[in-house]
Amino acid sequence: MLAVHHIVKTYEGKPLLDDISFKVDTGETVCLLGASGSGKSTLLRIIAGLEEADSGVVFFNGQLLTSMPAHLRDFGLVFQDYALFPHLNVYDNVAFGLRMRRLPQEETDKRVINALEMVNLRSFEERRVTDLSGGEQQRIALARALATRPRLLMFDEPLGALDRTLREGLLGELRAILHQTNIPAIYVTHDQEEAFAIADRVLILHNARLVREGTPAEVWAHPGSAFVARFLGLGNILEGTYIGHSQVETRFGTFTVDCARKRSRGDAVHLLARPQPVDAKRDGNVVRGVVTDVIFQQERFKVTLDNGLYVYLQETPKKGEKITVQVKVECLA
Fold first, then answer.
1. What ranges do the domains of the chain cover?
2. How far is residue 64's CA from residue 242's CA, in Å, rounded to a whole number?
3. Separation between Cα atoms, residue 33 and residue 40, nearest integer Å
4. CA distance 48 to 154
5. How crowded is residue 133: how many other Cβ atoms within 10 Å of its Cβ?
6. What pTM did the predictor assign?
7. Class of domain 2-221 as given by CATH
């Protein structure tokens, strides 16, 4: 098990990571999710031993890693740019780490074949990596990491250079491989769809801090803050004032919400109005406006209103039409 305790890192006098602590259990895939510059890759490099923290410690299975060099930590890394050796063929790329460990040739052959089978590239041993597609090169990079049988796998935006179709296919394969091998993994990305597809648990970084942690379902259902809801694209973020009796007044109207935290009259409140229509019997909150734009997205229509709000509808309204839609409105921290 990996345990990260109170990691602090500054860059040019400003905090990049501020008191970061989390754990990764055996067989668990944890995703570090955040915008560019949020410190995700730096945190990964600290765990890998490629960079030093200003303070804080990292343990693996109870062993302190602070003074342990990167090559002795036995962690596997997969990068966005693949980091393959262009002058070596597929076999030699996958075997590189094994030869550095001076494994017998028979054991090296066995591990290379096994790793290539896991990524569905068993017959590619003699091919030049420069002749492979981007998706195939990323599979080779993964096979190279798997061949050494690492204690922990770390992925730094590994699918960022691939198109959507390839990315979705590789995500499913990667998740299956991680579950099959039971190797704990840390996956860094700025893409929330990617994070939710691969992770058992999501950690969201913002302003040097971990601002939300939980399973994908938990984070999606309860973002907890306006930043997280906005970053994940969960819906319309409304600023309002609590006026009492579970009522919040906004420029879009007054909404009835149950806030987990006790509010006083006059308190500023952020609301999340999810764009999916709901059963009017369960939720009496509505948004109104004049349709200004309609886009077809994944078997539904994204309808933008003249007040800036948007909703998803199964039937397309006409531009200029005034509509009223029942929506789920929830209170954010």
1. 2-221, 235-332
2. 49
3. 7
4. 8
5. 10
6. 0.89
7. alpha beta
